[in-house]
């Protein structure tokens, strides 16, 4: 099994705690290396892991948080080699917290927790050694899915070779990750340039680097393409590592990066008569994790960008256009572009929150199939196949 071991302080340093200090409102545990964690009493009580407070099977909270007095205090505390026992002055409840649990969930300070492979940014040179898995490997075991999903997480994309050249096998492959996300384009799509749907994808026109479904409140997490038939010219597939491009923008033009992290961009899908889709609120190109500041999602599709008439400050208009011009200039640099002529039997899957995709114009008959997977369903499968449920439950409880 591909090993992705959570690198937390627990992993790095054996648990040496040398003292526990209690105050009327909190508990302070001193670990090794002069690191100490402080926990609010109400936080500790609210996170009691006993079977009265947390359902042993569903892991859902049974405790009524709102009955905990805001000034709850401990009446006694006992230390053992395994953990800390706290007797509370409310409902004579006793809670036990393993030292490893306390370290893992320390929030003051927070300890580094990584449960996913470190993302490796790439440029066009990755083509010499692109991430790839074999269809049979993925189909025959969850270890194969672990390898597949960890490559998607590390590189943002992965090719899959040896796929039987039909939509049914391709759909079965995609479902090895999770159920397919159905949209107004259907579930598993099988399309050509016949404008069966009113979207540029259903033409032979060139499509520049973009992310899909920017018009959904929750853009699709993964997207897979498998070219089944092609008898014309062109139609090469393009991938660009959006996280690398964002890093370059941040380095070369930090003001542009800041603007594109804040200016909300309206988006739409309204070509088809039966749909008129817009996100619950416009979102900026770059979305960051509020707690770590890490870039989490890129949303960029200039074709699907709708009329921008909700400027909080009209002076931002020219700043915005200067910023997207710079962003586009970086996105279209040759050294960041991976061009691949897909062929029947070789599919590509990519992280639609990180990797932008596109294609060159084409002539002739070109039949492509594929589908979307929700972000959270993908990450769930990535973690479960690579870490295992027990390990994951430790991180949550
Ligand atoms: C379903 N299939 C992938 C063929 C087409 C999707 C349409 C792409 C759309 N403009 C977007 O950016 O989401
Ligand atoms: O036809 C292709 O190769 C890709 C089309 C596309 O970019 C899309 O469907 O979002």
Second rung of CATH, namely the architecture of the largest domain? 4-Layer Sandwich
Q: Number of helical segments? A: 11
Query: Can you tell me the number of structural domains?
Result: 2
| Unreliable parts | 1-12
**What structural category arises from helix and sheet content?**
alpha+beta
CATH homologous superfamily (4th level) name of the largest domain: Clavaminate synthase-like
The outline comes out as elongated
> How are helices and strands ordered from N to C?
HEEEHEEEHEHHEHEEEEHHEEHEEEEHH
List the strand order in the largest sheet: 7-8-16-11-18-9
Question: Which oligomeric form is depicted?
Answer: single chain
Radius of gyration, CA atoms, in whole angstroms: 25 Å
What is the helix fraction of residues, given as a range?
A: 10-25%
Q: Which CATH first-tier class of the largest domain would you pick? A: Alpha Beta
Biggest beta sheet attributes: 6 strands, mixed
Family: Belongs to the gamma-BBH/TMLD family.
Enzyme class: oxidoreductase
EC number: 1.14.11.8
Catalytic activity: N(6),N(6),N(6)-trimethyl-L-lysine + 2-oxoglutarate + O2 = (3S)-3-hydroxy-N(6),N(6),N(6)-trimethyl-L-lysine + succinate + CO2
Describe the protein.
Helix 5 packs across helix 10, helix 8 crosses helix 9 and helix 10 packs across helix 11. A hairpin with a 3-residue loop joins strand 4 and strand 5. The protein contains eleven helices and 18 strands. The N terminus is likely disordered. With 397 residues, the chain is of the alpha+beta class. The chain has two domains: 102 residues, NE0471 N-terminal domain-like; 282 residues, Double-stranded beta-helix (4-Layer Sandwich). The structure holds N-trimethyllysine and 2-oxoglutaric acid (AKG). N-trimethyllysine binds next to strand 9. This is Trimethyllysine dioxygenase, mitochondrial.
């Amino acid at each position: 099994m591909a090993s992705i071991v959570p690198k937390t302080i627990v992993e790095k340093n054996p648990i040496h705690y040398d003292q526990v200090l209690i105050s009327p409102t909190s508990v302070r545990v001193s670990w090794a290396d002069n690191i100490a964690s402080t926990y609010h009493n109400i936080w500790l009580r609210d996170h009691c892991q006993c079977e009265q407070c947390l359902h042993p099977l569903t892991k859902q909270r049974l405790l009524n948080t709102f009955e905990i007095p805001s000034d709850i205090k401990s009446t006694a505390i006992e230390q053992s080699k395994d953990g800390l026992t706290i007797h509370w002055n409310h409902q004579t409840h006793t809670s036990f917290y393993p030292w490893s649990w306390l370290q893992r969930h320390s929030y003051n300070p927070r300890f580094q927790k990584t449960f996913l492979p470190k993302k490796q940014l790439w440029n066009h040179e990755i083509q010499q050694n692109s991430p790839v898995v074999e269809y049979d490997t993925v189909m025959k075991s969850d270890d194969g899915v672990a390898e597949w999903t960890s490559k998607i997480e590390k590189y943002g994309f992965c090719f899959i070779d040896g796929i039987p050249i039909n939509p049914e096998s391709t759909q079965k492959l995609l479902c090895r990750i999770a159920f397919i996300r159905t949209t107004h384009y259907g579930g598993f799509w099988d399309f050509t340039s016949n404008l069966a749907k009113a979207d540029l994808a259903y033409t032979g026109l060139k499509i520049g680097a973009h992310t899909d479904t920017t018009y959904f409140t929750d853009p699709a997490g993964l997207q897979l393409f498998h070219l089944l038939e092609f008898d014309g010219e062109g139609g090469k597939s393009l991938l660009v590592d959006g996280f690398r491009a964002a890093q370059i923008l941040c380095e070369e033009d930090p003001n542009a990066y800041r603007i594109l992290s804040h200016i909300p961009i309206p988006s739409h899908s309204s070509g088809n008569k039966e749909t008129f889709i817009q996100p619950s609120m416009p979102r900026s190109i770059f979305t960051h994790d509020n707690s770590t500041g890490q870039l989490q999602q890129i949303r960029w599709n200039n074709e699907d960008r709708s009329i921008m008439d909700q400027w909080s400050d009209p002076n931002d208009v020219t700043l915005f256009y200067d910023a997207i011009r710079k962003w586009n200039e970086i996105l279209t640099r040759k050294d960041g572009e991976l061009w691949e002529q897909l062929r029947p039997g070789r599919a590509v899957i990519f992280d639609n929150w990180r990797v932008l995709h596109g294609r060159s114009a084409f002539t002739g008959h070109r039949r492509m199939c594929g589908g979307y997977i929700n972000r959270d369903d993908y990450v769930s499968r990535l973690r479960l196949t690579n870490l295992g449920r027990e390990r994951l439950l430790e991180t949550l409880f």
